[in-house]
Amino acid sequence: MDQLLQHLANALIMGGTYALLGIGLTLIFGIMRVVNFTHGELYALGAYMMYFVANMLGLNFFLAIGFAIFAGLVLGALIELILLRPKRTADIDTTMLLMIGAWIVLQNVETLTWGSVAKSIPSPLPTEPLVIGPVSLSWLRLLVLGLALALIAATYALINRTKLGKAMRATFQDSGTAALMGVNINLVYTMTFALGSSLAAAAGALLGPVFVVTPTMGDLASLKAFAIVILGGLGSISGATIGGFILAFVEELGAGYISSGYRDAMGFIIIILVLLFRPTGLFARVERIG
Amino acid sequence: MLEIRNLVCRYGKVTALKGISLKVERGQMVALVGANGAGKSTTLRAISGLVPAAGGQILFDGEDITRASPARILGKGIAHCPEGRRVFGQMSVAENLEMGCFLRSDGKGIAADMAHIFEQFPRLAERRRQIAGTLSGGEQQMLAIGRAMMSRPKLILFDEPSLGLAPNIVEQVFEIIQTIRAAGTTVLMVEQNAYAALEMCDYAYLLETGTMALEGTGQALIEDPHVHEAYLGGGLSH
What we know:
Chain A is mainly alpha-helical. Helices cover about 70% and strands about 0% of the residues of chain A. Chain A has a two-stranded antiparallel sheet. In chain A, a hairpin with a 2-residue loop joins strand 1 and strand 2 (about 135). Chain B is α/β, with parallel strands linked by helices. Chain B is about 40% helix and about 25% strand. Chain B has helices at about 40-45, 70-75, 95-100, 105-120, 120-125, 135-150, 165-180, 195-200, 220-225, 225-230, and strands spanning about 1-10, 15-25, 30-35, 55-60, 65, 80, 155-160, 185-190, 205-210, 210-215. In chain B, a hairpin with a 2-residue loop joins strand 1 and strand 2 (about 15-25). Classes of the chains: A mainly alpha, B alpha/beta.
């Protein structure tokens, strides 16, 4: 029982960052119909920016998180403007190949810039864990959960309460009619890709200090993000949020009670099961007709 | 007010419009009739900037808008009520109307216009918080019209406003369009119900496979033997 509580607490903490990763990817797919293979590299970018600003420049830990998110926003906007905008009318296979190419290039640039040796980012928080009954939690992980939840709430507010969010939702539902309403579809696409990318970078910046930072860390992040999005239903933001937490719980419980070697395999087992039994995802709305 | 000169539009290798010309004068109601696939919707979509022109010119108030973006064209005062209603199904009625005035930022004017539309369409007022996808077809058409009016257009384009609606609702929709026109908005309408459209309009154009086959007053087209035979059900008298 005590062990179960500890597992549940760990899962809750990972779930927040998984949800961030998933929301970013599902936003991009839902609005732009682009399968974004660079998502994990944006995650790695966030972690490296964290390392660069906090360790190499020696600046404030929280400032570094902000900088990492900003860097994700800028790189996302550049990828959209340079690679995707000229291919706006291309089919989904073309943009998929383009994104796979960009993924390989970005990963190699990371290796060239930072080297292949793993880097660690020290936490500024007390290393003495917070102990509540049988559950022991590190302050860093609690901070990660708090910031992830704050970012998820901010994303929801942006989508549901702002004019940009309304334009994004209209474009998601019917881009042609949104254009007739005066929505600048190109701008919505750039903003969407930048926003989705900044959420991936945020997840990387939050998990970078928890784990270590390597140039290939984005591969697994991409695959997990795809698992979350498939689980929640392509294009569903609330689905991705819940999907992130479900993946974290399944991983944690699978690692705790089946075998710790299977932790990262859990995501793929989920993908296979969902695609076999409920291919539209657990929370997908019925497809719009016509 | 609106003038189209030799407009050519292509979808890939298919030429949908082969150089058509038409004119809409301020305050008029102009109808564009023709069979399915004649290019009626394409004409409206080209005016709104959704379909690029491969040739020719579109002038609005003397200004060339042939290559302008949909947002700029809407900003100039041309609203488009699309075929099949195309309301945002996952948004509320009120949010749909807000989308209609996406380019406006005059809060008071928007509130007044929205109140006016709710006055005109009491059904929408009752359902302002309801998700638009759950409305009936007639209610969705009212919403689509209200949404187009929210931009305070000078010219409004209606694409098949009666499509798929019950006969008594069709009558209501046509009444609303006449009210809009009487209030001073110029109307260009594409309609498969040729007889109703010709009866309502001041001037009409007949499109046949991408070319302008005929033009004249609505009455003149109704009396034209070819129109009568091909579009108004032949020998049947109305």
